[in-house]
Amino acid sequence: MWKAKLYLEKIINIFFPLLCAGCGKQIETNSLFCAECQKSIQVITSPLCHLCGQPFSLKYTSTHICGECLKNPPFFKAARAVFLYTAPIKNTIIQFKFKNNTALTNDLAKILVFHLQDFLKKVNPEIVIPVPLHIKRLRERGYNQCLLLAQRIAKYLKIPYEKTVLKKIKPTLPQVGLSQIQRRKNVKGSFTVTHPFLIKEKRILLIDDVFTTGSTVNECAKVLHKAGANGVWVATLARTGNVV
Q1: How far apart are CA 11 and CA 4, in angstroms?
Q2: Would you say residue 91 has pLDDT above 80?
Q3: How do beta strands 203-211 and 231-239 pair?
Q4: Could you tell me if residue 244 is inside a domain?
Q5: Fewest CB atoms within 10 A around its CB: which of 113, 165, 178, 189?
Q6: For all residues of the chain together, what is the average pLDDT?
Q7: Buried b / exposed e across 178-217, counting CB within 10 Å, b at 16+?
Q8: Has residue 139 been placed in a domain?
């Protein structure tokens, strides 16, 4: 039996070779990344800002609040990301987000839950919500990668998720290339809560793919908070920027 299974796996690998999600190179093992890409991945660890999750250099001995969060306190309780948004993670997320590579969903969800397990235990969320796409963008892309990710994360955490309670009602410009002030103006008033009773006094885990300035997740957290949520915590696969 095991010989037949091994033979079948070899046949499958011939016609459907395993490819590294970071560089596209063929790999032998059933892993998401090749050994070279694995070495270049930067996992975010402490010390970091305990609000937005901005990583600090090792010259800081403890977690504290960064200058930006002191100046502009966010509406979310805390945000955490798994990786710095550099290659090969950047390439992987682009594949997942824009290239219809939804087969990455399960692996990326497992990675997020594994690396952020301590954060998630402290948060103890009661419901998972994805950052929504405007209907126009959803029709263009065909799917919302954050929804797919949130659905799988909720399954791992064994809690419900809601895909329609948070809705994007205003089309916005792509955030890429905009300054922090422009990003805030761009997303202001673009989200609404459709069924407040579903989130009333609930601890919410908000899922996005990349945290840049936090403008999008902060706007989402604001409307969720106003609709009666007990608190909003943010989890993303990656965040842009360097260690400060």
Answers
A1: 11
A2: yes
A3: parallel
A4: no
A5: 189
A6: 90
A7: beeeebbebbeebbebeeeebbeebbbbbbbbbbbbbbbb
A8: yes
Low-confidence winner among 113-122, 184-193, 229-238 (lowest mean pLDDT): 184-193
pLDDT band at 3 (very low <50, low <70, confident <90, very high): very low
Instruction: Tell me the residue range of the domain where 134 lies.
Output: 42-239
Quickly state the pLDDT bin for 17 (edges 50, 70, 90).
low
Token pair recorded at residue 153? 């994360």
Q: Distance between CA 10 and CA 15 in Å, rounded? A: 9
For residue 71, the one-letter residue type is K
Q: Which of 173, 198, 209 is nearest to 188 (CA)?
A: 173
Residues 16 and 132 in one domain: no
Q: Which H helix or E strand runs over 168?
A: strand 166-168
Whether pTM > 0.85 for this model: the answer is: yes
pLDDT above 60 (res 207)? yes
Task: Count structural domains, the chain.
Answer: 2
Indicate if 80 and 12 belong to the same structural domain.
Answer: no
CA distance 76 to 217: 8
- CA 218, CA 185: separation in Å to the nearest integer? 12
Pairing of strands 166-168, 191-193: antiparallel
Where residue 113 sits, what CATH number does that domain have? 3.40.50
What separation, in Å, do the N-terminal and C-terminal C-alpha atoms of the chain show? Answer: 55
Q: What is the mean pLDDT of residues 64-73?
A: 93
- Is 99 a member of any domain? yes
